[in-house]
Amino acid sequence: MTKNKKDKKRFGRNILPCVKGNVLMTVLTPLFIIMEVLLEVFIPLLMATIVDGGLYKEQNFPLKAYIPIDNINDNTRFIVVVGVMMIIAALCSLAFGILAGRTAAVASMGFARNLRQRLFYKVQEFSFNNTDRYSTPSLVTRLTTDVTNMQNTYHQVIRMFVRAPIMIICAAIMAISIDAELSLIFILAIPVLACALLAMVSVGHPRFRAMLKKYDALNAAVQENLVAAREVKSFVREDYEKEKFDASATDLKNAQRRAEKVFVFSGPVQMAVMWTCTIILLLLGGKAVVFEGRLGSAELISLMTYSTQIVNSLAMVSFIFVTMSLSRASMNRINEVLDEEIGIVGGENDGLKVANGQIVFENVDFSYSGSKDNCVLKNINLRIESGETVGIIAGTGEGKSSLVQLIPRFYDCVSGRVLVGGHDVKEYSLYELRESVSMVLQKNVLFSGTIADNLRWGNPDATDEEVEQACRMSCAHDFITSFPNGYNTDLGQGGVNVSGGQKQRLCIARALLKKPKILILDDSTSAVDTATDEKIRRALREYIPGTTKIIIAQRISSVYDCDKIVVMDKGEISDVGTHEQLLARSTIYREVYESQAKEN
Amino acid sequence: MPKRDNITSKLGDAKPRNPIRTFGRLFSYYKECKVAFIVAVTFIVIYSVSVISASFLLKPLVAILKENAALEDKYARYTVLAMGMAFLYVTAVITNYVLNRLMLECTVRVLCRIRIEMFNHMQNLPVAYFDSRTHGELMSYYTNDTDAIRELLHHSLTQLIVSIVSLAGIIIFMLVLSLRLFLIVIVLGIIVSVVIKAIGSRSSKNFVKQQKVVADVNGYIEEMMAGQKIVKAFNHEKQVCERFEELNGELCTVATRANTYANIVGPIMNNLSHIFYAITTMIGVLASMNGAILITFLQYIRQFADRISQISQEFNFILLALAAAERVFDLLDVPVEKDEGDITLVSATEEDGALKESGVRTGVWAWKEEKEGQVHLTKLLGDVRFHDVSFSYVPEKRVLEHISLYAKEGQKIAFVGSTGAGKTTITNLINRFYDIDEGSITYDGIDVRRIKKADLRRSLGIVLQDTHLFSGTVMENIRYGNLSATDEECIEAAKTANAHYFISHLPDGYNTMLTADGANLSQGQRQLLSIARAAVSDPPVLILDEATSSIDTRTEKLIEKGMDGLMAGRTVFVIAHRLSTVRNANAIMVLENGKIIERGDHASLLEEKGKYYSLYTGMTELT
To answer: Domain spanning B18-177: which CATH class is it, in words?
Structure first.
């Protein structure tokens, strides 16, 4: 129950606002549908009128008071008048139907658009620790499949949720107005049918979920097999895989049978109820017609039409409940993202600019979980002056990347302070801070589009000359111009058309275009040969002397000429000094140096 | 990007090329459940006939009510007729349940059959097939296409049969009732189908367009979710959101249009039938027809319109499903991997230099050749030679040119070179994932093409660049290399691969479940597991396509130790990115543009001061 309440609250907070901008359409849809339904109920009445009054020439035809003809013996005129009325009613109903179809589409697609937008914006707000909590495919599913599920539910609800009850009410009223006593029959049938459908849904739903799970399992098995196709063939495990899949497919078959079996009842149950009503109506109604004469035969047929309408509408309601409960899982997954608490918010002081590239770490502890127990960085104290070039050397998992990620506030330290340009990084707006700190991440990503498009991520307004200069500095210009389309070469999704070393150099150029006060290269020349690596570093020293440069590397050759080199060990700074100083006094540094010197 | 294009063209294929043949082939799957299907179809006919007959009884019922006869007698006859109707309805309800249940049975069986056939067929396809397609593309056979077929079998097919039988019945009844009125109905039918066709084609055109935009939007979402951190690092949130808003807006517009068309089909059909009802009545009365006939006829008019619209709507779904079925059949028609080899691998015992086939695993292997009733055994040594081999993945684009090399029993041969130089290709040829264009490859003196593929591959152990594990326990994953291995043998293999230590520190040790391709393990650990897997299969020849460029030096050391344990006493082909791992190879081949440009051992290559030397000293970058 409390969970239900919580879900409702989240629904109000996260999902409801997405209706904004589509309120009119959302409200109009049921209104149009009500009109359509009213006419739809009215039309059978006209049918009864035309048949009873026109064909059987009974005095006691329905809607008698409303037909503007006194003498029903003027048969032709009567039929034409009622027939025309019917056509007009059908045309009106058609108009409302089309309008409702349109407004429903506009409203639900608009809703989906808002929801998608809201999610996308939310993810853009995510700080790194938020992003770390979700895998990329899981976020993608939430923004695609889950949103589509919600859209379909919304679409169905605004169209059907009003339609079915109104239909039931109108049909019931009409039926009662024809003959209250007889109407009682199918009004009594309503709870019977409702119970039967409810029972079916409650039995079938869990089975359906179980089936979907098996379905996912089967797909996962196929996916796994496709991904590992080479393994399967190398180990000659085709038959083994077939056996495994056979079991999985049979499992799914049984689950599917078990689930659908329940819903096979829905048609017959509905028919049984509907036709039982029809037969009872016929018997009792016939009696009323024959012995009491209080009912016309056409009225009897109308009654049967209404009973059919009621039964069908009830079935519709039950299916809406099914879709709603199925979409609930999607809603929860969406809510999870929307309710994610943003870990890092920028400082209030918008006017504060980063004055220079000085960096100071003061007693910094850091852990990814936010607790002090499993710190990746412990008691870091480090001072880097503006314009210095600093190298960082350590093994994997020793905290190099963590250290530099604190500078542009990708993460916040657990205790202590990080200062940039003399101010705590938390004082700056995130935009200002990140404009001033450019970082080439270890995991490089290029986006689909041309090389120039990608480079201009660093600065959208960069001139062609600026772009070219950045590429010369990062030794990318030559290979770019060797491509037939030069800077307009299409990279393809994920930058698949360039090699690892080329990708790294493009990413450096992109970072350079930002003209940052601080440039961080996180192991970003690992695939570049030493000679080019050297050339890039020389260019950086020459062209952007005022920029603070931090270089993280595995190779000593990438850092030996830095102003100072930081040696890290198990999350702590073990030593800081120049190449010569460290060779003389740091065991770790010497070990790394020697292992690489031997190799070369 | 060819991959993206493929998807779009696939979406465009909304219509099957040959619907009738495809339907026939799909239909042939019903032999799985012949009896059930025949009974079901019979019941469909009974059901439809019962329903129409029941509504046909309305005419006499109403007629009785209108009669000027004694009330009691009238009602008695009326009741009998109504009971007849009730009987028909009971029949309809029962047959409806039975037919749906039977059709369900057929559906699940046929689907299961199709799934298994697809999967089994895929297992027999050559590696080239998988290399030229994305996983998403292949998955969609199992998801989208199978779903579409399921819809067809489960709903559309039954619906269609019911609708057609009912329509036939209705037409017959209407013809019996009044030929004149039936002419009106024909006009009605034509108009209805024209309208449906017009809306349907517009709607499906818009849905195809929508699919395209959806693909764009999803692609953008995927890319941005993956590049999330870069977006943040470059303060690019605003631009990214703006672009998304554009795409999202476009999607909204197209989706609204497509859904509007879909939404208005119902009201149009419904009201068209109302209008026809009115028109028919007017015409009927003006032509002074029999009232009772007209009333019954009017009942049929509505049913007729309903059926026609049902059939035409169903028809769109059926075409979609048949297009899907056609894709599935296309997959099933892809030729399987050819295997003309007849030499098999057997266990053997060796006594005084003479080989004898053995039923149990002896650790000694032999190639068994049967010629004219004579069995000839050759001991498996692991001597692999390339003689002037040339190869291309696509015609005209040679990947390897005139490669000759040999690996004698127990030797370690290394390949060095840039991405695309042809290193991995060489290993693809040894195990015959691909077949060479020219030259020959021999294995213990036998042309590999004469060896049965399964046996050839069984004799080769392989550790691939991208390690893939299967969901299951660690133990099961190791055992993948040799299904008959005992737990002890698996643990022994793990020890050889240097993986035992980390495995015993996992929460459940060897029984730890691996999820989604071993996502709960680090790259290095996965690599170690795959080495253990190769170790337990205990192959005479090993191919190590190593991936150490993304692994830090310490993990690399671990893996190297594992590899050393595995390599002892076997012929080994090593593909290396880091040169430190190939130093102790008997021969190192430096590949460039599909040619061996340098060969020799480490010392001699360094002396040569060529490409290897410049690579080794870091003067050139390996890409």
So the answer is: mainly alpha
**Is beta strand A423-424 parallel, antiparallel or unpaired with respect to B541-545?**
unpaired
Token readout for A360 is: 């100071």
- Which residue type, as a one-letter code, is found at position A58? E
Where in chain A are the domains? 1-177+326-343, 180-294, 359-599
The pLDDT of residue A344 is: 83
pLDDT given for residue A117 in this prediction:
92
The residues spanned by each domain of chain B are: 18-177, 344-379, 384-616
Confidence of residue A420 (pLDDT cuts 50, 70, 90): very high
Out of B143, B229, B245, closest to residue A128 by CB? B229
Inter-chain CB proximity A253 and B109 less than 8 Å? yes
Q: Report the percentage of chain B scoring pLDDT > 90.
A: 10
**What is the maximum span of chain B, computed from C-alpha positions, in angstroms?**
124
Which of A475-479, A595-599, B148-152, B534-538 has the weakest average pLDDT?
Answer: A595-599
CB nearest to A113's CB, from B252, B281, B552: B252
**What is the percent of chain B with per-residue pLDDT over 70, rounded to a whole number?**
90
Pick the most confident of A77-86, A413-422, B199-208, B307-316: A413-422
Q: Closest chain B residue to A441 measured between Cα atoms?
A: B230
Of B384 and B522, the one with more pLDDT: B384
Sign, CA torsion B479/B485/B488/B493: negative
CATH fold group of domain A1-177+326-343: ABC transporter transmembrane region fold (1.20.1560)
- Best of A131, A219, A235, A459 to mutate (most B CBs within 10 Å, chain B): A235
- Preferred mutation among A282, A498, A512 to probe B, highest tally of B CBs within 10 A: A282
- Going by pLDDT thresholds of 50, 70 and 90, the confidence category of residue B620 is low
**B620 contacts on A by Cβ (under 8 Å):** 529, 531
**CA–CA gap between residue B172 and residue B190 (Å, rounded):** 18
Residues written for chain A: 600
| Chain A residues lying within 8 Å of B231, measured CB to CB | 124
ipTM over 0.95: no
8 Å CB contact of A271 and B93: yes
pLDDT at B293 over 80: no
At A600, the pLDDT band (50, 70, 90 cuts) reads: very low
Neighbour-count burial for B432-464, b at 16+ CB within 10 Å, e otherwise? bbbebeebebbbbebebbebbbbbbbbbbbbbb
Distance from CA of A581 to the nearest CA of B (A): 24
Q: Which of A230, A275, A599 sits opposite B93 (nearest CB)?
A: A275
Q: Which chain A residues touch B237 with a CB distance below 8 Å? A: 124-125
Cβ <8 Å between B274 and A492: no
Q: What is the CATH number of domain B384-616?
A: 3.40.50.300
Q: How many CB atoms lie within 10 A of CB B375?
A: 10
Contacts of residue B533 in chain A, CB cutoff 8 Å? 235
CB-based contact A109 B256, cutoff 8 Å: yes
Cβ contact, residue pair B89, A275, below 8 Å:
yes
| DSSP string for residues in B281-294 | HHHHHHTT--HHHH
CA nearest B267 in A: which residue?
A97
- Whether this prediction's pTM lies above 0.90 is answered by no
CATH T-level assignment (fold) for domain A359-599: Rossmann fold (3.40.50)
Mean pLDDT over the full length of chain A = 83
User: What residues form DSSP beta bridges with B438?
Assistant: B390
Nearest residue on chain B to A156, alpha-carbon basis? B263
Say yes or no to pLDDT of B11 above 60.
Answer: no
What does the DSSP assignment read for A262-318? Answer: HHHTHHHHHHHHHHHHHHHHHHHHHHIIIII--S-HHHHHHHHHHHHHHHHHHHHHH
pLDDT at B2: 29
pLDDT digits (tens, 9 = 90+) for B303-356: 787 787 777 777 767 877 888 888 889 889 988 888 888 888 888 887 777 777
**Smallest CA–CA separation between B438 and chain A, in Å?**
23
Q: How many residue pairs bridge chain A and chain B with CB atoms within 8 Å of each other?
A: 385
